[in-house]
Amino acid sequence: MLNEVTDLVEKPKILVCEFDKRFLNIPSEILVTTMQTHQKYFSTIDNKSNLTNNFIVVADINDPKGLVKIGNERVIDARLSDAEFFWDRNKSQNLVKQISKLKNINYFKGLGSYFDKIQRMRKLSAIISDEFLISKEKIEIASSICKVDLMSDLVAEFPELQGVMGGYFAEAQGFEKEVSLAISEHYLPLGMDSKIPKKPYSIALSLSDKIDSLVGFFGIDLRPSSSKDPYALRRMAISLVRLIVENEKKIKIRDLLNYSCTLYKDQGYEFETKKIQNELSEFILDRLKNYLKDKQIRSDIIDSSISSFGVDDLMKIYKKSIFLNKNIKKDFGLDALAIYKRSSNILTNEKQEELDLVGTADPGLFKNEYEKNLYKKIHEIRKYFSSVGGDENYEQGLKILSSAKTEVNNFFNNVKVNAEEKMIKKNRLELLKMLCKSFDNYFNFSKIEV
């Protein structure tokens, strides 16, 4: 706003004005929006970050008699009086009793009314509540009333406050704090840089809103094109990504997409579930790519992460990408990468012989200790990764892989892979295939640049 006001005046004069202190009882968002958006005034805060009744006007003329100051104070008093009236009226209008009126407000052509939407959100958020271990009853209440503020005078006057006003109404009517906060924050985050909800109920409600919208728009073939995104679906998907990775949540996105399609079908919409699930999974992963690029992650690491895991592993993709970006050039990272590349290059060169390798070596065909030692090491690696649970230690995993350096070097220095006997050659290639497959448990190293 500062740049906008600067362009409006040639010789700026700063006037410090004030409004009636009684208006401070109105939610601060209403006051700030009235001053900044409608009047181009600057609001002020005290040393405790509380809004004050002083505001700043940038005038283009001198005001020796204070007439401009008085005029602006009268304008803001009139506007805030209207806002106060709407606030007093709207906060007392029962949210639950207004739910059915949402049937008369269209959500989007082809996707029903807002009443239809909150029914889908209610059931979707209930599923999410099971994963978050939060009260199903509370999140269903929040889902049921989260869109009611769209019918209020205040949101009609200040559309940018939808959700925020719903939270205030819920608080004023005695709903629990978690419910009110979830309603207030369910539109957040708004893209890459905005505030992000941190409380479980807020996250659950925001996820259900965004998943329902994404499935709906993809279901009626309103996907973004390469140059146009009129419904801000990319921003919605990046917000979904942020909700998950920045709150360190492991969520089965594919199941939620599938269930969302089912909820639409229950309301009579014919969506191609498998198609939507696949397209939205790819769409969300693409947004994660952009998110990782914004974090200055190497592009080859991003591509490897995305190809290693699916949309249900957004948190793992994010964390492992961050870790590898910091550690791939350390000794243990370089050793692991060198082991994989040396082995996979040999396999790539031998593909032309169509040996049909599956990654299973026969110990009975080993001719020396170097083969046996490598085989033993591979089983150690496999045993480690088979025992890894949800709390994988990425550094330990990479060091386990790099620990095969001695066995691999001894193998290559003392064993002729391209043996004259075809069966022995194939078995040694199978051993290398086993090694590469064991590395795949950690990451897709094939896309990493040396």
Task: Provide a descriptive summary of the structure in words.
With 450 residues, this protein is mainly alpha-helical. It folds into three domains: 2-90; 100-313, Hypothetical protein af1432; 328-447, Orthogonal Bundle (Isoleucyl-tRNA Synthetase, Domain 1). It contains 20 helices and three strands. It has helices at 2-8, 28-38, 67-90, 95-98, 114-132, 136-145, 153-157, 164-172, 177-185, 200-219, 233-245, 253-266, 273-294, 299-308, 314-327, 331-350, 369-387, 394-402, 405-414, 422-440; strands spanning 13-18, 42-45, 51-59. A three-stranded antiparallel beta sheet has the order 1-3-2, with helices on one face. A hairpin with a 5-residue loop joins β2 (42-45) and β3 (51-59). α8 runs antiparallel to α9 (177-185) and α16 (331-350) packs across α18. The longest helix has 24 residues, at 67-90. It is elongated and about 100 Å long. The two termini are 48 Å apart. The mean pLDDT is 94.
Q: Roughly what is the average pLDDT, rounded to an integer?
A: 94
Rounded Rg: 30 Å
Fill in the CATH topology of the largest domain: Hypothetical protein af1432
Class by alpha and beta content? mainly alpha
By DSSP (H or I, 4+ residues per run), the number of helices equals 20
- Strand order across the biggest sheet? 1-3-2
Biggest sheet architecture: 3 strands, antiparallel
CATH architecture of the largest domain: Orthogonal Bundle
The N- to C-terminal Cα distance equals 48 Å
CATH class of the largest domain: Mainly Alpha
Strand content: under 5%
Helix content: 55-70%
**Uncertain stretches of 5 or more adjacent residues:** none
